[in-house]
Amino acid sequence: MNRSETTRSFTMATWLGWQVESNWTDPFLFAIYVIIKPLASAAILVVMYSIITGGAYNSPLFPYIYLGNAFYTYVGAVMAGVSWAVIDDREHYKTLKYMYIAPINIPFYWLGRGVSRFLIGTVAVIVILTAGVLFLHVPLDLTQVNWGLFLVSLLLGVTMLAMMGLILASITLMVAHHFFLIGEAVAGALYLFSGAIFPLEVLPAWLRPVGYVMPITYWLELMRRSLIGEVAQAFPTLAQYSNLQLLGILLGLTVVFAVISVFTFRWCDYRARELGLIDRVSNY
Amino acid sequence: MTDFAIETKDLSRIYKIRGNKKEKQIRKELVALENVNLTVERGELFGLLGPNGAGKTTLIKILTTLLAPTSGWARVAGYDVTQHPNLVRPRINMVSGGESSGYGLLTVRENLWMFSQFYGMPSKEANQRIVELLKMVGLEDRIHTKSSDLSTGLRQKMNIVRGFLTDPEVLFLDEPTLGLDVGAARDVRKLIRSWLDADKSRTLLLTTHYMVEAEELCDRVAIINKGRVLACDTPANLKRNLQRDAIFEIETSPLNGLTSQILQDQPEVKKAALTDIEGGARLELILKEESALASVINILTQKDVKVRRLTKREPTLEDVFMDLVGQKMEDVEKEEAPHAV
């Protein structure tokens, strides 16, 4: 079967990404790692919340923070996952040049490499949500979930994150030295401005616009609304927008980021060839 | 479209190098390739011979679409590497020696199979070919070994198989036997020869700084130094130009201050190179006339240097290189080591 260049780039990169992410230990330990890691990070947040609010788990702020933090897992997983492939292939496995001379579609190869982190991220999100419902009374009722809105928002959000990951991957191609944490650094910085752990009103007025131009802000709001409905709308940040308007904004920003990612990739790819960066190893 | 497998015209590449922290503003230029004009016929095994830092790898990087030239153009399999890289890539493959690339968590078979899939090979055909090629390089018993568990040499063999696996129109091997032991290097050379013999349309460009390898394998050789192609012909023709010269190798006692320059100042001495060996020196001479040997011996006697062994021999590619560059390749490498590209 002769698959198209794009399809084989994506599927084989997905296969490779999964092997790289899951093969470093035996399956049992890997499963434990996938479950324990998100629980530990959620537990840190819950303990901090408990100390600051005196254990006000019934406040709408708690599910706001809890769900925002849970879904933010995808930001680090997808965005950093896609861009990490550049560092991993160039510095660690020294295969980037061989991928580059192969007849593959490089952006789709990078996106494929991010799929495994997306899958692991999905397990993490499910684990965090389940723990929240079972032990912390997060008001998530599966019969009340707006599944249509949830699935559309999730699909659109992951696409948006993948586009942002592609931008980071392209930039990573240009920085030959010690910027290997660029993906996680950007994900960390956006954590503060996307309403993941507090409403944007908490930020000084001059910093809020950063959150308003980030598609992650709208995406997290949509995820909350689809899962816990009105509780999510207890905060004024995006209350004036309907679900459909939020979807429209998210779709628009996703398209904008997709266009930016295409141009960023083309420019970085061109410059990397000009400067001879594709196979440059900094031995970090 | 042309009939050449590889064609370059005035191909140049200049690297701009920034200084260290104190000299950040100072940009130095390093000429890695300068007006390289080459043509390689389809079916040819073409060798690029030169010391480390000569520009061989830079040329391969350009030809494999990894690096943009500063000026000039290059075509591979009939397509311009800058304008149509997507048409070049399905037709080529490349292996760099002396490195241990590959996904350590994957087995040898998985590594190779994965690359075959990126090239769109049918899975069954790929698996059969993997077994065949691994047998040819003596790696079949490691097919299910994780590549992280292989020694550097075995990993290099795996990578060499990766290059042949996709059966490219043009294969680039950059120092394929670098770091391999004698037996492994012989296996690789055998594989190269049999791959080319099996299909006369296949083309292979090989870079090496092993003269014997170039002489044994290559149909034609380009001698390259400091980014410039100094000569390009069959090994026999390159050597033929030296056949009217007399080439001597002399082993002596310690040199007592004698330098190669003193010898080269003699009118009939074309080139002289000195190498320290245990308890003395080896002197390699290219003389315009055999009779000039007398004046060389005379100088040695004056310096109280004793001749232990004197051999007249046929020219080798090493002599061709020395004749063109004025130094032995290993001496050039010693000088150029800090600037190698």
3D structure, described in words:
The complex is a heterodimer of chains A (284) and B (341). With 284 residues, chain A is mainly α. Chain A has ten helices and no strands. Chain A has helices at residues 5-22, 27-53, 61-92, 96-101, 106-136, 147-174, 182-193, 208-213, 215-228, 243-275. By secondary structure, chain B is α/β, with parallel strands linked by helices. Chain B has two domains: 4-239, P-loop containing nucleotide triphosphate hydrolases (Rossmann fold), CATH 3.40.50; 244-313, ACT domain (Alpha-Beta Plaits, 2-Layer Sandwich). Helix content of chain B is 33%, strand content 30%. In chain B, the strands form three sheets. A six-stranded mixed sheet of chain B has the order 6-7-8-3-9-10, sandwiched between helices. Chain B has a four-stranded antiparallel sheet with strand order 2-1-4-5. In chain B, strands 12-13-11-14 form a four-stranded antiparallel sheet, sandwiched between helices. In chain B, helix 3 runs parallel beside helix 5. The radius of gyration of chain B is 23 Å and the shape is globular. The mean pLDDT of chain B is 90. The chains are: A mainly alpha (284), B alpha/beta (341).
